[in-house]
Amino acid sequence: MSTFPQFPDDVDAVRRWARLAPSRVALVDDTHGARLTYAALDAASWAWAHVLRAAGVTTGDRVALLAGTRAECVALFYGCLRLGAVLVPLNWRLAPSELARVLADARPMVLVCDARHDTLAARALAVDGAPPRVATLRLDAADGVADAAPLPEPPSDAESATMLLYTSGSTGAPKGVILPRRQLLYNAVATVTGWRMTPDEVVPVSTPLFHTGGWHVFLTPVLHVGGTVVLFDGFEPARFLAGLAEHACTLAFAVPTQFTMLMAEPRWGEPLPALRRFVSGGAPCPPAVRAAIRAAGHGFQEGFGLTECGPNCFATNDETAEAHPGTVGWPIPFLSVRVVDEAGEDVPPGTPGELLLRGPQLFAGYFGAPERTAEALTADGWMRTGDLAVRDATGLTRICGRRKEMFISGGENVFPGEVEAALADCPGVAEVAVIGVPDDRWGEVGRAFVVARAGDPVDAARVVAFARGALAGYKVPKQVVLLDALPRLGSGKIDRRALAAMTEPATAGASA
């Protein structure tokens, strides 16, 4: 790994704001009713530090978390930070056997669990191969700790781990991504700077806390700047929209599927005077969705990032985002970007290539997997994202899709994201995903998986006919599969491995 500039040891934003403005509201738990000032969150964090210390947790130990999106989870994280312990948020959507494999890899000393997931935790720990002797604590374990005095804090440096996040497995078995202190700080500072945040921000978080989007798209940057985070324990469209108004939220993040759900709500389009803009991420946002958000009077921009870097890697403004739809902007502060060909050479503007990233927002490696870390990084410290991107002469960046998802049909490169964006505008199409499949004549052809809009049936012929009018012939899917829903990973991303594993399509489109 490259050596990055050192920074002050104190990256604990909660402690800083508890000292500067103790009565400012740090967290609002919309689902469970809690409301914590920075002083209260600071005290709750020290309470967790005492509970964990009493359980034998010391510097470098891992503390697993199996819980919904609760204020206690945030306090637990900052309690871990103060002990030098490493939080390991667990995906509660996993089956017990899957969860057991993650636990076996992470080897936590303690597992903190809420009441809702007690049974899942017990079943996972009972699986053969699960780590033995894991102490379990309830999520309310720190509630009874009164007047918890600050504890001596261990020395730390930029590379000290703060969190171990397991990826959702879109490219294979889940991998534990080590997030060091420098990543926590630099992502927060760069996000605040690039996205022009202020202490007056009120920002909702509905993304599960086993995902980097739950912690580091908004939560830790907003706490860094002294703003207020509104926690939603799950994404329920009607409640989320109501919460945006009730809490006077200023920024809001959602994935494209969630935006589609919001737009189906009766109160979509009602004024949200405090909201400056929506941010979309996790997948390319269809043009029709972007247009509908702007038509409702909201600012809008797309973001890009990954667990291993950022996760906020680019920034733009409303004017540029509107003038150049589908772009994610320019690199966020401290982050360097390259777009390269298969030989690792930089490509000229306008040419697709693999996106490489380097900067202090990078992860510290994959836990217990140095060979995987070496595969992900070049010798001089660039992260191979596996994503294809195009930059124009000004450096404005557009994400084309995953390099492994691109397929070659009749000698021409086809990017599924481009095809999906076009088909998203087809009448009757609610969601669409495209993969390449083998073909005797063309080498590979596109297979589109389509979810129809409720009350607006769509068939393969309509999809293919629309594609012919919107795309070059070699990009038009040769097969169309109608599904009730697209399979998804725990992160909300489309599970393309599951799509590829499906049998021959039930509905096929005519050759284009």
UniProtKB/TrEMBL annotation:
<dbReference type="GO" id="GO:0031956">
    <property type="term" value="F:medium-chain fatty acid-CoA ligase activity"/>
</dbReference>
<dbReference type="Pfam" id="PF00501">
    <property type="entry name" value="AMP-binding"/>
</dbReference>
<keyword id="KW-0436">Ligase</keyword>
<dbReference type="GO" id="GO:0006631">
    <property type="term" value="P:fatty acid metabolic process"/>
</dbReference>
<dbReference type="InterPro" id="IPR000873">
    <property type="entry name" value="AMP-dep_synth/lig_dom"/>
</dbReference>
<dbReference type="Pfam" id="PF13193">
    <property type="entry name" value="AMP-binding_C"/>
</dbReference>
<comment type="similarity">
    <text>Belongs to the ATP-dependent AMP-binding enzyme family.</text>
</comment>
<dbReference type="InterPro" id="IPR020845">
    <property type="entry name" value="AMP-binding_CS"/>
</dbReference>
<feature type="domain" description="AMP-binding enzyme C-terminal">
    <location>
        <begin position="418"/>
        <end position="493"/>
    </location>
</feature>
<feature type="domain" description="AMP-dependent synthetase/ligase">
    <location>
        <begin position="15"/>
        <end position="367"/>
    </location>
</feature>
<dbReference type="InterPro" id="IPR042099">
    <property type="entry name" value="ANL_N_sf"/>
</dbReference>
<protein>
    <submittedName>
        <fullName>Long-chain-fatty-acid--CoA ligase</fullName>
    </submittedName>
</protein>
<dbReference type="InterPro" id="IPR045851">
    <property type="entry name" value="AMP-bd_C_sf"/>
</dbReference>
<dbReference type="InterPro" id="IPR025110">
    <property type="entry name" value="AMP-bd_C"/>
</dbReference>
